[in-house]
Specification:
heterodimer; A: 472 residues; alpha/beta; 4-stranded mixed beta sheet; 24% helix; globular; B: alpha+beta; two-stranded antiparallel sheet
């Protein structure tokens, strides 16, 4: 190869490396500040075998390496001239044999009206404020606080049979992938969080925050910073009406979220026609487009000790001639969702709609496993179930169970990503996550799914992009 | 001069090799681990009792507090204001083992959410699958 060619190749490679760095591998130094005392937490001397790329020879060392790995992933994705310090510890946290706390994290402090702030009278997580200011605004404090449960895997009475997976390769199997949980929690600490008390609608010292500025309520067209306390309180429980208003996420949605949102479309009668929210099943075939169309019928079974209602489908369907070739409607309760759906399938149903038996929106999904189930099924809310039952009493209801291909999974028609804003019976909601409709699964959904990768940027994930909309 | 020229070309080759290796390493580092794990059923387990749930959630109250009462605003010479959150406004990951032995994890930001996640349907005797979507499917915490 001639010198000229070598030089051209060198320049091209340098250019490519520069572009890659600009695209997703900018640099921020994230330091894990070990707060644990001798012999505990990160300093636990218990010998362990290296696992999944984690070369630590002690339990404490593996914990620290996993923390550093998660910090490194975020550090290579963000840019900041100011060191980000994570105040980290592994401590015994509340836990029983069957449930417990994995850990917690968040911003240590918030800052407003600093030099370089993009908006006045707006709180920023301190790590972001430091980045925008170009200096450490609170040099005597750490930026993110993270505390994780050291009892998991060491106390036999804590989540018995399970352990943290300290490997860095995501091959966690049935255990808890520490790096994934850390990536999620660190994102909250970096700014993927509202500082509004959602149950009351109140702000800290009557100042909005950079996250809440970009929460848009599509029913009112207002962002949270423009709302009164009462308006925010009402807005926080409007399921699938709150979206992230940032331009970066909206632009990235087509490259990240799959086309098609699960929906129950009632075709007739006209009085109730329209799209209804559904929760999908973790068993049976996934919903498709154009989906399954048919008349909706009430499936009936015996009222017995297995299920006291004639509409719970907990035992053999007693009106199979009616159900055969139709979409069966059944009620939640008394037996597993898989049992209900299988009974309807055995009666010849094309698909199954499970109406919730408690109020709340959006509808949760149907969990369980049964590889013999071959028909699709969904859950709808109690209110929507009652609407359909009312229409059935007066005639035929025709519906399609499938995907609305005009929408991306977890976004609205304008490609704005939905935020998680459930309206359960009890007050309280979680604005600081994506809606559970997002698909492929996203790091910042409230349920930490087992199929997440360690990738925080498009085309896999929207987390980095949301932080970019805030100024990262 | 010829010697100088050879050395120059040789070092340039080494430079290109180094660059190529760096480039490949950069690309490979961008392909983060993609493997998927699943929580397969293990064994039947009981769910936490109401008392256990109370004890768990009592221990979360400080972290999950979203009450700003008592938080102090510090004014800085450059015009900035800051608030040390004193460990409040945290997000907290909770986990439960379902009756079929699978795990469900949820990140919560208030105690009510934590309670709802950890509570069980009193009539439940069936497994509650792990909260995960395997294809175009929802994360779901309930089995019945």
């Amino acid at each position: 190869m001639k010198t000229r060619q070598l030089l051209i190749l060198s320049v091209a490679l340098l250019g490519l490396m520069f572009l890659i760095n600009q695209a997703g591998f900018a640099q921020a130094t994230i330091t894990v500040v070990n707060m644990d005392g001798p012999g505990e937490g990160f300093n636990d001397p218990t010998p362990v075998t290296p696992v999944g790329g984690n070369s630590g020879a002690t339990l404490g060392a593996q914990r620290l390496i996993a923390f550093q790995d998660a910090a490194g992933i975020w550090g290579s994705s963000l840019s900041s001239a100011v060191e980000i310090r994570i105040q980290a510890s592994f401590d015994p946290l509340p836990c029983t044999a069957t449930s417990g706390v994995l850990g917690s994290a968040g911003a240590a402090s918030i800052v407003s009206d600093f030099p370089g702030a993009t908006f006045p009278k707006t709180w920023y997580a301190v790590a972001l404020a430091n980045k925008l200011a170009g200096l450490d605004l609170l040099p005597s404090s750490n930026d993110i606080v993270a505390q994780f449960n050291s009892s998991i895997g060491t106390d036999p009475n804590c989540l018995t049979g399970f352990n943290w997976y300290y490997g860095l390769d995501n091959n966690h199997g049935t255990n808890l992938d520490l790096v994934t949980v850390l990536l999620h929690e660190f994102a909250h600490g970096l700014g993927f969080a509202s500082f509004v008390d959602e149950s009351k609608g109140t702000e800290i010292r009557n100042k909005t925050d950079i996250y809440s500025r970009q929460i848009l309520d599509t029913t009112t067209g207002q962002t949270w910073d423009k709302m009164t306390v009462h308006q925010r309180k009402l807005s926080a429980i409007r399921p699938r009406k709150l979206v992230w208003n940032g331009a970066g996420v909206t632009a990235a949605v087509p490259t990240v979220l799959a086309q098609g949102t699960p929906v129950l479309a009632v075709n007739s009668p006209a009085g109730i026609a329209g799209n209804y929210d559904v929760g999908e099943a973790s068993f049976g075939p996934a919903l498709t487009s154009p989906g399954v169309t048919g008349d909706v019928v009430q499936a009936l079974d015996a009222a017995d000790t297995t299920g006291p209602s004639t509409t719970d489908a907990c035992t053999t369907i007693t009106n199979p001639a009616v159900v055969n070739g139709k979409i069966a409607l059944v009620d939640r309760g008394s037996c597993a969702f898989t049992v209900k759906v299988k009974n309807c399938q055995d009666a010849g149903a094309l698909a199954v709609i499970v109406a919730d038996n408690v109020a709340g929106s959006p509808p949760n999904g149907l969990s369980g496993t049964d590889p013999t189930i071959t028909i699709p099924s969904v859950r709808i809310t109690l209110a929507d179930g009652n609407t359909i039952k009312g229409a059935l009493a007066g005639g035929v209801v025709n519906a399609t169970l499938g995907l609305d291909m005009s929408l991306r999974a977890g976004a609205n028609a304008a490609n704005q990503a939905l935020l998680y804003s459930p309206n359960p019976v009890a007050p309280g909601s979680s604005i600081s996550h994506w809606d559970t409709l997002e698909f492929p699964n996203q790091l910042m959904e409230p349920f930490i799914n087992g199929d997440l990768t360690h990738n925080v940027s498009p085309p896999a994930d929207l987390t980095r992009t949301l932080l970019g909309d805030e100024g990262w | 001069m010829p010697c100088h020229s050879v050395r120059r070309r040789s070092s340039l080759r080494e430079f290109v090799i180094l660059l190529t290796v760096s480039f490949v390493l950069t690309l490979s580092s961008s392909a983060w681990a993609q493997s998927t794990g699943t929580n397969a059923p293990k064994k039947q387990l009981r769910q936490p009792t109401p008392e256990e749930i109370k004890n768990l959630t009592d221990g979360m109250k400080k972290s999950l507090s979203r009450d700003a009462t008592g938080l102090v605003v510090v004014k800085h010479p450059n015009g900035a204001e800051s608030v040390n959150l004193q460990g409040r406004f945290m997000n907290l990951d909770v986990v439960k083992i379902n009756p079929d032995g699978t795990l469900s994890e949820k990140c919560v930001s208030n105690v009510d959410e934590a309670k709802r996640f950890l509570q069980i349907d009193a009539s439940s005797s069936k497994p509650d699958a792990a909260a995960k979507k395997s294809s175009h499917q929802s994360a779901v915490p309930e089995v019945k």
